[in-house]
Structures are given as C-alpha cells and as structure tokens.
Design a protein that fits this description.
This protein has 131 residues and is mainly alpha-helical. The protein is built from 6 helices and 3 strands. The protein folds into 2 domains: 92 residues, Potassium Channel Kv1.1, Chain A (2-Layer Sandwich), CATH 3.30.710; 39 residues, no CATH class. The longest helix has 19 residues.
C-alpha cells in the first residue's frame, strides 16, 4: 500500500471558538507550531489552537496555502504584503488592550511599567480608537 504524501494528507485545525478547518498537511506545516506538533506525532486528532479565532485562522490558512503551493517568490511577496496590510489595517489606531484581546496576548507589564511606557511614548497613544 502506497504511503499518502504530505500534499494529500489533511490535518484538522480547531479554532478557539470550536470551528474545524481541514487543511492539507503540506500547507499547515508552514506554521512552525503546527510543524512541531506533526513532528512530535501529536497530529492524530484535531489540533486545538486555543488562541486563534476562526476568523483569524481562516486568513492564516490562506497565507499558509499560498506558501505551500510552490507559487513564485514574487507572488508570495505580494500575498504576504496583502495579508500583512490587512492585519495592520485591523489594528491601526487601536489601543494596546484591544490588540491584546484580538490576538489573545497576555499583558506582561505591571501597571507601573505600562504607565512608564505610556508616558515615555505618549505620542503613540494619540487618536486611539477602542471599538
């Protein structure tokens, strides 16, 4: 019996809000986190991505597929620029708290450290939109 190639195998990725995504392994392992899970032999069932919402995961999968399909370097650069622009547009003029919430990032600053940063870089906190 012939072994199934990485291009043919699929992995199930499970977003933080419970949505399942079937992704070709060749695309999924473009992510180092997922690659490590596969290499460690822990990809037999759905791979939970507790800090990634289905909306963000869908966009990441498009990015991974673009890098796995062997497209030309210029096409990949253009795709990367579009992807990163979407992310930058999403977080532009947002507060650090809003961005942390969006990406599930824990605030590791003490209140005193955060206040010092806000005072030192006060210009960076002008025109922040918390919606």
């Amino acid at each position: 019996m012939a072994e199934i190639s990485a291009e043919e195998r699929t992995l199930t990725l499970l977003s933080s809000d419970g949505e399942r995504f079937m992704v070709p392994e060749a695309a999924a392992v473009q992510s180092k986190t997922i690659k490590n899970i596969v290499e460690d032999g822990c990809s037999g069932g759905p791979i939970p991505l507790a800090n990634v919402s289905s909306k963000v995961l869908a966009e990441v999968i498009v990015f991974l597929k673009n890098h796995a399909n062997g497209s030309e370097i210029e096409e990949q650069k253009k795709s990367d620029e579009t992807f990163l622009k979407e992310i930058a547009d999403r977080i532009r003029d947002k507060s650090p708290e809003w961005v942390r919430n969006l990406f599930g990032i824990e605030n590791d600053y003490t209140p005193e450290e955060e206040e010092a940063v806000r005072m030192e870089y006060a210009w960076a906190f002008d025109d922040i939109n918390d919606d």
